[in-house]
Amino acid sequence: MILSGLFSFFGLSSKAANQNKTTVEHVHPLNWWAGMKNTELQILIHGTGLGDLSVELKGAQNIEMKKVVRFENKNYLILYVDTKDAPAQKFQILLKNGKKIVKTLPYELQELSHRKVNSFDASDVVYLLMPDRFASATTDKEKAQMYKGMKENTWNQEDMSRHGGDLKGMTEHLDYLAELGVTAIWPTPTLVNDMGNQSYHGYAITNYYQTDPRYGTNEDYRNFINKSHNLGIKVIKDIVFNHCGAENFLFVDRPADDWFNYDSKFTQTTYKTGAPADPHTSALDRKLTIDGWFVESMPDLNGKNKLVADYLIQASLWWIEYAGVDGFRQDTYPYNDFDMMKRWCLEVENQYPGFNIVGETWINNNVGVSYWQKDSRLAAPLNSELKTVMDFPLMYLLTSVVDEETDEWDYGFAKLYAYLSQDIVYANTDNLLTFLANHDTNRFQPTEEKAKDVTRYKQALTLLLTLRGIPQLYYGDEIGMYANKSVNDGALRQNFPGGWPGDKNNAFTKEGRTALQNEYFDFTKKLLNWRKGNETVAFGKLIHYCIRNGVYVYARQKDGKTVTVMMNGTSKEQTIDLATYSEVLPKRTAHDIISGKSITLGNKLTIEKRGILVLEF
């Protein structure tokens, strides 16, 4: 039904509405856009005394009211409207008791940006950081105002509390990341986590449309993205559909118990991420994995409920259009409802073709990870439509093989060779997020002693940046930060040195870094900036050889260009016969990226202990 002027949908009168004071606390989405491909728009209104009011749209042009959803909880109304053929406009939502207007809510459809998405892919290097721990650019006085009214309203430098990092701090250090050669940034969630304590990590969201005030405002977040784009850096937004914080208004004053799994009663998950793909799993184990809660403070959202799914999907689309987000990282992917997440991936792709989403698939074998990737042959006829998955098995290998003496079968790079030889299980190896560590694992350098061994890092980083996939660094990797999860999670999430006024060392500058930190930084910078725009390394065919004399040799080839990597996995010199590798040595001379020198190749080549050669032809 086409609207022009005033449209009345309900004309109900209610004693309850007369008896209760009517307030409106949330209208989600905050606004919308004309011309979206999915023209159905859900508008959720939350407050008090709303449930029996009638709804009218005033001044709405070409907007059709489809239905109003009501609940036993009278604090909600959900409107479904069709915006097909509706131009950008401002209109009013009238909430009425009989003929009396109780509330007038302004609403707006804005002009769609029609921007062409430039999402992250294998040509990028992603930099994962934690906003609370990266940098602060606000004074204590400003911070006190930002923290005012929050349940956790103090900050200090203790491991498990808030440290005070913010969006302005992140924005002020974008030049550092550009110098390093980073092309995409993944901050852990920046949405508000108004919980009682220890929610600095961001994964207990209490409002899907609000940036955490302790980081800044929605406008600060948009400004951070705009400045990132000006430096050629993409921004990946970390979001959570599986669960929210227990202080989220949707749980505290939930529309209905079926908005959360197990009828909103805490039932803990088994954490068995293999269960959804297991052909032998029991119905109980499958349900507990998908519907069970992580912890009691993070209620598990019911993605099977269309109202919930619509709400979450719209929130994600809102952030793409409002802030210019270039990609998503979705937390705890296998714990979500499969059909809902498939629908989400398709809706995002439909609206923003080419938009990339990486799902956290923390499964310790490649078969299990591959199940969740778009077009997986192992999942067929199911198809998740999720383009990118996280290669956790490779992470564990990269952190261990550099500590072992390589042989031809069982140790060191022989393990890596064997793992990569099984890549047939993946539908698309370009769309694997690869990494040495993240905010939930040991840092790549788990101890101070290992952090002194820069060669260990150089070998692992070279592998990460030249093998298949989308490489991701964890903030501080590039200066040799170290930590072990056995201490606590807070130890993995230290402040970046120099991010706070009064820090003794400022690792954002060459002068502020130690000699060891500069060795880390300079090597990382050299490889990242060489890799930037290098199509051969990013998308070239991977060819590798079985281990000979403890040396792993592989190459990337594309459009007549070759990059060949030779890595000694032993603690002694090794000499190799180059005739064996003629397929990936197209010329007698090559440029060695590590040394910066030209190399003439003979019949044999001696590589120093734990040596690395990256040869570009």
Helix content: 10-25%
CATH homologous superfamily of the domain at 6-111?
A: Immunoglobulins
Query: What is the approximate shape?
Result: globular
Just name the CATH architecture of the domain at 6-111: Sandwich
**Which sequence of strands runs across the widest sheet?**
10-11-14-15-16-17-18-19
Helix-strand makeup class: alpha/beta
Uncertain spans, ≥5 residues at pLDDT below 50?
1-19
CATH hierarchy, class of the domain at 6-111:
Mainly Beta
Number of strands: 27
Mean pLDDT: 95
CATH topology of the domain at 6-111: Immunoglobulin-like
Put simply, the count of helices is 17
How is this structure best summarized?
It contains 17 helices and 27 strands. The chain has 617 residues and is of the alpha/beta class. Among the domains are: 6-111, Immunoglobulins (Immunoglobulin-like), CATH 2.60.40; 540-616, Golgi alpha-mannosidase II (Immunoglobulin-like), CATH 2.60.40.1180.
List the helices and strands and how they pair.
Elements: E1 6-8, H1 15-19, E2 23-28, E3 32-34, E4 40-48, E5 54-58, E6 64-69, E7 76-82, E8 89-97, E9 100-111, E10 126-129, H2 131-134, H3 140-147, H4 167-172, H5 174-180, E11 184-187, E12 191-192, E13 207-211, H6 218-230, E14 234-239, H7 249-252, H8 283-291, H9 306-323, E15 327-330, H10 338-351, E16 356-359, H11 366-370, E17 388-390, H12 392-398, H13 413-420, E18 432-435, H14 448-451, H15 454-466, E19 470-474, H16 515-531, H17 535-539, E20 541-544, E21 551-558, E22 561-568, E23 574-577, E24 589-592, E25 598-600, E26 604-607, E27 612-616
Parallel strand pairs: 3-9, 10-11, 10-19, 11-14, 14-15, 15-16, 16-17, 17-18, 18-19
Antiparallel strand pairs: 1-5, 2-4, 4-7, 5-8, 6-7, 8-9, 12-13, 20-21, 21-22, 22-27, 23-26, 24-25, 24-27
Helix pairs in contact: 9-10, 15-16
